[in-house]
Amino acid sequence: xxxxxxxxxxxxxxxxxxxxxxxxxxxxxxxxxxxxxxxxxxxxxxxxxxxxxxxxxxxxxxxxxxxxxxxxxxxxxxxxxxxxxxxxxxxxxxxxxxxxxxxxxxxxxxxxxxxxxxxxxxxxxxxxxxxxxxxxxxxxxxxxxxxxxxxxxxxxxxxxxxxxxxxxxxxxxxxxxxxxxxxxxxxxxxxxxxxxxxxxxxxxxxxxxxxxxxxxxxxxxxxxxxxxxxxxxxxxxxxxxxxxxxxxxxxxxxxxxxxxxxxxxxxxxxxxxxxxxxxxxxxxxxxxxxxxxxxxxxxxxxxxxxxxxxxxxxxxxxxxxxxxxxxxxxxxxxxxxxxxxxxxxxxxxxxxxxxxxxxxxxxxxxxxxxxxxxxxxxxxxxxxxxxxxxxxxxxxxxxxxxxxxxxxxxxxxxxxxxxxxxxxxxxxxxxxxxxxxxxxxxxxxxxxxxxxxxxxxxxxxxxxxxxxxxxxxxxxxxxxxxxxxxxxxxxxxxxxxxxxxxxxxxxxxxxxxxxxxxxxxxxxxxxxxxxxxxxxxxxxxxxxxxxxxxxxxxxxxxxxxxxxxxxxxxxxxxxxxxxxxxxxxxxxxxxxxxxxxxxxxxxxxxxxxxxxxxxxxxxxxxxxxxxxxxxxxxxxxxxxxxxxxxxxxxxxxxxxxxxxxxxxxxxxxxxxxxxxxxxxxxxxxxxxxxxxxxxxxxxxxxxxxxxxxxxxxxxxxx
Length: 718
What we know:
Blueprint: H1 2-17, H2 25-43, E1 73-76, H3 78-83, H4 89-93, E2 99-103, E3 109-113, E4 116-117, E5 125-127, E6 130-131, E7 148-155, H5 159-162, E8 169-175, E9 187-188, E10 192-198, E11 203-214, E12 217-228, E13 243-256, E14 260-274, E15 296-316, E16 319-337, E17 346-366, E18 369-382, E19 386-389, E20 395-396, E21 401-415, E22 421-435, E23 452-467, E24 472-483, H6 487-490, E25 496-497, E26 500-503, E27 511-523, E28 527-551, E29 554-579, E30 582-595, E31 600-601, E32 609-616, E33 624-633, E34 650-664, E35 667-677, E36 709-717
Parallel strand pairs: 5-8, 26-29
Antiparallel strand pairs: 1-7, 2-3, 3-4, 5-6, 7-8, 9-11, 10-11, 10-36, 11-12, 12-13, 13-14, 14-15, 15-16, 16-17, 17-18, 17-19, 18-21, 19-20, 21-22, 22-23, 23-24, 24-27, 25-26, 27-28, 28-29, 29-30, 30-31, 30-32, 32-33, 33-34, 34-35, 35-36
């Protein structure tokens, strides 16, 4: 009976949080009832339990359980996050092999994995194993690294497990949750205060976290605040790079038995920030003849609401079930001043997307054979963007759009007695994209061909590993991948914009790729290393804004499948325990990308680059550490000469150190962390930062990175 009461309370909280937000509330209630049936069917199989200081059962938050052993996977631990002293989520994941970023200031940007960008919908983000469907150009603004206990990066295409967009890789962020004896008496858990200060932008990043566990309940509430003024480069400050971020996150649940938990996650955040560079406000477009930034683009504000209801448990011996339903809504007001010399401004009210979805995964293990089956869906709704000029009335500049995706998948893994393994996965996806033509001018409706487009696709993967020596394995992967066009790629609004217009393309086909990986994996007591070579052949890639025949006397553009491309490269990842308290880590990546249609180099390809770190935790100074890191890239000379310029290489040096002081008064586990980043005040830009060759080089074209940055932070439990 107690389980039923808890379930009803969580369901009501979920409904109240999103009251009035979704037309698909019936779907959420139905999915919740399905989860409820699974829970109480599972209760009949509970065995007698003896608990001694047990933590709550783990939920299937990690996608590591859905990635075959042969797939390259990087994991950033909570300790690494704590020692980063105020780095953003994007900065952390960009230190992994094969991963880079297009930055948009000190707090946001887009990840790029193996030449594929999240901004082009080719690197999806997951949170707790659930698809973070939305606006990838902006969404990394809403993530505070203090909200997460770990970060996972799957390198390489993974459509057969994670669906559309998984072209270059997948990023999964795992939320923090209260730990401790969840079946004992009520007690505080994971309750702390942390704060970091950065000198480059006089920035503050703080979190207050309150946790409680006991009698089957776990509760964790986090309050986050980030602030930064315009940041300094080795030359001058970058204007319009300030930000202010406020959010809360709640992760609570009820556990019974030794392996059953139902949980609720809520998030809300609000961000006000300037956008000095990146791919949204093309940084060259507003520059003066002398290269001075003269265009202002701001998020005033961006806010997001999110809720997820989940259940995880062992239904019977060797069978685990994970069920989830979730909902998300985003809104942004983009405040734009096209030219600071003229008294004009525009507000673009971007409503959406609103997303609801669900995912059910079952995993069965018997002897050496593991089978995983899943089904997932999402429904995405975009309202028409509205524009207001100089505070005037709002006018639609887009059309209402919807997209529905249903997918089923399976993963099969077998481990042989000699430590060899083989795995295979298969997935089928169905899509329906709909455009509401009521807002389209009658003279343009003939371009839309009905407003509804349906697609389906089957993807697969095969992989295996074989031990060559005691500590050395050879690893092979072959897979297919695809990306279904988004609703607004298929049917952009066909209204006039000055002397140009965009028209829809209902025949836009999914992007496809065939991918090959060959690598070696070595691991013993002291060394853990992996080297992977890869080759991906892409077909029907979508190029945006391709010039077509003029329509109604205007320059006309359309999204089209016109490009055949390939990307190949090699990645090395190495960790070496030189001494028991001294660890050396490094990774190196090299990629080449070609557009085979016209023979040009792809623009989103990093040159030879890498990361190196040396971490020392002396035994004679208990609770202390000192760490050196360096990020580097060679000169970028393989470029698309029509769009970009060559960029110089760089080597940026950083040092971090900290000390745990134990209990000080009412504070427990008091810890101080210090850092000096970009020690030698290097002037540099990330090679993938967007640059418009039609405009002069400036602070934001391409966007300069911060100069020398002193940081200090503390964390204390109470």
